[in-house]
# Entry
Amino acid sequence: MSPPKTPFHPFSVLLLAASLLSIPSTFAQTLNPSCAPGGNFDLSNFSLQLPIGQPGSPTTISPDKLAGCTGFQDKDHFFTNPDDGSLQMNVPGDTSTGCVTTKNSKHCRTELREQNPSSWNPNAPTNRLSANLTVVSAGGSTCIGQIHIDDAISHKPVAELFYDDKGHITVGMEQTREGGNEKTFDIGDVPLNQTFSYEIRYEGNVFSVVLNGGKPVEVTTFQLNAPKSYFKVGNYLQGKTPSTVRFFGIEVTHG
# Structure
């Protein structure tokens, strides 16, 4: 299955890249499997949250510490895959494994959080998160990308893109800023260990998801009134067993 070609935008921030064989041209560049992720990819606009640390306060790595070929990596959770150069994110399982969650969540994660901008206006004409990835194991179910409401407004997401061990992809949409009333919508199916692409859009106060370059699936039933938001991308485990996600490309576009 061939992923779509992502159009270049002057405000694009290129985060990750991968081989010409499976990745759109906007992502394509040679990766050095011997480098930490920061040596291959520009992580200057993202912080990293790991499933380790103190209860209620997971370890967070700042963008400056991620930078460079000798920058931060964690052999258990966040590292460059030595075989294909992808950015591999692992989660060991649920809290029974000893992994650490935030105080507002019961789930462990290895996840990048957009920092610059720290939040943006959903009424703007362009707000997009694009990714190419392979889910090796979903641990039951994991969130591979999300839009989160600005922390000063709410601790709830706008939307979470879920992938389960059957390869079923859904999006969970909160209906209010208070949360607790999420509705789930089907997006499509991609088998485990198959590379695919997605694009999450929240622009003109309309939310949509594009899978493998297909027709955007719009979800407009929620009543959030366009709160300031930010993107997150990674492996935010919803299940109980270990999960592994390998990213070949991630691109954030605002404008």
About this structure: The chain has one domain: 13-254.
